[in-house]
Amino acid sequence: RNGSILYQLLTQGLKRPVRDTQSIERIIKGAENLQTFLETNAEAALQFENISVDTLFFSESNAQWKRIADIRWEGHKVLKQIGPLWKESLVLAIAEQYDRTEAVEQYEQWITWMVDRLHLDQALSIEPLLNGSQIQQRVLPYARDEAFKQIMEAQEEWQVRHGYAARADNNHEARLIAHLRDAFPEFAGHCEGEDGV
């Protein structure tokens, strides 16, 4: 089913289990995507190397916030596609460009920026702030099943851009609700818990 040269070499030539070869292929493909991400954001990594999303003032009108939010969303999609093996992909992406000593230094710098500054590692464990039932009852009462995939993806992007933690923060939740209603006005309406209900 998978006709790549690497797959054939590992399964037939080296007799590796299919599960091993799939993981290795994911690492290699992930390295390609991560290399593109690193190259695209190398300048931003230097510019924002000492800025943490924990302390950055979040504002739609803040150009610095918008740039970092874009990077977070871009990185989130890359790591989510790779899965738990993303650090192995990062090692491979960097090892292809540098000698051993410089590769170690580069790896440590990128890990610091991606994990400690941007919290991109949390891409693999993000939880929706609102589930489908809550969205239909409180946010978009006219949404139907076929629209929920798009709505949940919009919520995920908003959470990534505004902070990963699904915080029990009324203001945080209220901003998300307003965003979803603006994004999907055709499904908005008077919801449970609002004045007059």
Question: What does this molecule look like?
Answer:
The chain is mainly α and 197 residues long. It contains eight helices and no strands. It starts with a helix and ends in a 14-residue tail after the last helix. The mean pLDDT is 82.
Low-confidence stretches: none
The average pLDDT score comes to: 82
Assign the structural class, choosing from mainly alpha, mainly beta, alpha/beta, alpha+beta, or little secondary structure.
Answer: mainly alpha
Q: What coarse outline follows from CA principal-axis ratios? A: globular
Number of strands: 0
* Helix content class: 55-70%
**Strand-and-helix sequence, N→C?**
HHHHHHHH
Query: What composes the largest sheet?
Result: none
Number of helices: 8
Strand content: under 5%
Question: First CA to last CA: what distance?
Answer: 55 Å
Radius of gyration: 20 Å
Key features?
single chain; 197 residues; mainly alpha
Short account of what is shown:
By secondary structure, the protein is mainly alpha-helical. Helix content is 64%, strand content 0%.
Protein topology:
Layout: H1 5-13, H2 18-47, H3 63-82, H4 86-95, H5 100-117, H6 132-138, H7 145-162, H8 170-183
Helix pairs in contact: 1-2, 2-3, 2-4, 3-7, 4-5, 7-8
